[in-house]
Amino acid sequence: MELPVKFKEQMKELLQEEYEDYLNSFDHDRYYGLRVNTLKISVEEFLKISPFKLEPIPWTNDGFYYSSEDKPSKHPYYYAGLYYLQEPSAMLPAQVLPVDENDIVLDTCAAPGGKSTKLATKLNHNGLLISNDISSSRCQGLLKNIELFGCDNAWVTSEDLTNMEQHYPETFDKILVDAPCSGEGMFRKEPDLIKSWIEKDDTFYPPIQKNILNAAVSMLKPGGSIVYSTCTFSIHENEEVIQDVLDKHPDLHLVPINKIDGMMPGVNMKECVRLYPHKIKGEGHFVALLVKDGETKHKKIRLEPSDRLDDCVTDFLRLVKLNKGAIKIKKDKVIWLNSDFQAYKGYRVLRSGLLLGQLKGKHFEPSQSLALALCPEQFKNVLNFSIEDERVIKYLKGETLDVKDLDKKTSGWTLVCVNNFPLGFAKLSKGSLKNKYAKGWRYQ
Ligand SMILES: C[S@@+](CC[C@H](N)C(=O)[O-])C[C@H]1O[C@@H](n2cnc3c(N)ncnc32)[C@H](O)[C@@H]1O
């Protein structure tokens, strides 16, 4: 891999005698990481059923290295949302943010959802997660990952963060800013980033990062915490951005992040963490944790009453045991809400809570997101395949299946599971399974 001369000079100045070790890290393959979805399964239970050989990632409680020969994205457990595939160093920022279960959390630059899905596991179905990203195309992937993970307490929104600032002063208990950056830390994993690094000089990202972080800080409640992270080494995009926000907000201070073996402090900012590929088993990253002076208070949630529901929705809901919340109709969509968070006019909201399903004329079709947010005990009719059953992949491909050997009696809406983990819905009739697995989610 040919690194740009200017980049090499910068790294030499930054790393001094360690520079050669850094260059040698390019001779080593990148590392592959998987993070267990503790909304669906404990780490302990996952390790018992894991089809892959896993080795713990030292800085997370739920992350593991897997081998490049394994293909976890092709396994039915991936389709059941049991894990997220994430570069190991990228697991650190959300791990560091101290989320409490009833917090209102904002993930400012969230797509495709690596860190949001971790924040959702920390909330454990409580509180509220606002997962936002300026790019509406990247938000489609974010939405799918939020749904696959079975998050029922998340909003997915697509807004320039600096537009949100004036509408939500001191609103969020915890905020993550995983800022857009020049990506120097990912050159080994994604060599294509080198091209865009050459095109943009080092004055491009810092003003964007400073604007995003300062906007985020103004939306943070007193007593709240904020994590700023990038996957780059540039001091202009890391320590200088932190210094700028500290200068502008005297009520903000840095909190030291525990350094595990191989983690380095920030440059003249010992509280922060720098991850280098020659020091740890992962790619390059920077993480800072900041706290705003004061005391956070959780306000009591006042849910609006549910809307009047069509008979077809009421009939379907007799099959489901939902947790406490309000059911709202938005055009043809039926949504379950557990928060009283309000959107301002013009705020682009892709999802506000859990999509239960859609009205199609006089019929109600339950959604893929509902199936993934349930556990089998919450649905009346369940059809469970064993992990070895070849019909699992056929179901994920959208095929109609003969299931007489498993169930001859059930008719109507059925939750299809693998090893008791929901995959999607089907309609059963006399042992024949009419597939309702969402088209855009199918196995390829
Ligand atoms: C490093 S990526 C985020 C990765 C994500 N946090 C994850 O873990 O999967 C940075 C993101 O910032 C978004 N972004 C850039 N400028 C933004 C802005 N002004 N407001 C909100 N999001 C922005 C980009 O679209 C991009 O998806």
UniProtKB/TrEMBL annotation:
GO biological process, one term: methylation
Domain of life: Bacteria
Entry keywords, A to Z: Cytoplasm, Methyltransferase, RNA-binding, S-adenosyl-L-methionine, Transferase
Residues forming the catalytic site: C231
Database matches in SUPFAM superfamilies: S-adenosyl-L-methionine-dependent methyltransferases
Gene3D superfamilies, alphabetized: 2.30.130.60, Sun protein, domain 3 (3.30.70.1170), Vaccinia Virus protein VP39 (3.40.50.150)
Residues annotated for S-adenosyl-L-methionine binding in this entry: C109, A110, A111, P112, G113, G114, K115, D133, D160, D178
PROSITE patterns reported for this sequence: NOL1_NOP2_SUN, SAM_MT_RSMB_NOP
Keyword Cytoplasm: yes
GO MF term set: methyltransferase activity
Xref: Pfam families: Methyltr_RsmB-F (PF01189), Methyltr_RsmF_N (PF17125), Methyltranf_PUA (PF13636), RsmF_methylt_CI (PF17126)
Keyword Repressor found: no
Record domain SAM-dependent MTase RsmB/NOP-type: where: 22-293
Family note: Belongs to the class I-like SAM-binding methyltransferase superfamily. RsmB/NOP family.
Annotated protein name in UniProt: RsmF rRNA methyltransferase first C-terminal domain-containing protein
Organism per entry: Holdemanella hominis
